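To start, one record:
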Amino acid sequence: MEEPAKVYNTAVEATLEVIGGKWKPVILFYLTFGKKRNGEFRSLIPDITQKVLTEQLRELEEEGIVKRTTYNEVPPRVEYELTDYGWSLKELLRLMCRWGDGHIERKYGDKAVVRNPTPDALPQ
């Protein structure tokens, strides 16, 4: 019998391998609203460094989740968008938002603020 290429303890591990971390789910969340340019991400996610943003986008691109389009303009314009495969994560992101809303309410009540849309605002 041939050795498996990779062994996972659970499929959750495989999911987290692709979209895990502090910023990837946030980047994917914003991409559900449409194409984004680098500067838009920096405005939407002010705490992320340019280096980390670039790394995260490259990793998502390598996994086939995000498509990078470069336009032959001066200055160069680059846009990021979800691939069809990336769109398959939409419901998971919606559930993460709902759970997060409930957690924030449970833990902080009205003493916390969510700056950006709730799961109901995610595109259908």
User: Anything to note?
Assistant: The chain has a mean pLDDT of 92. Residues 90-108 form the longest helix (19 residues).
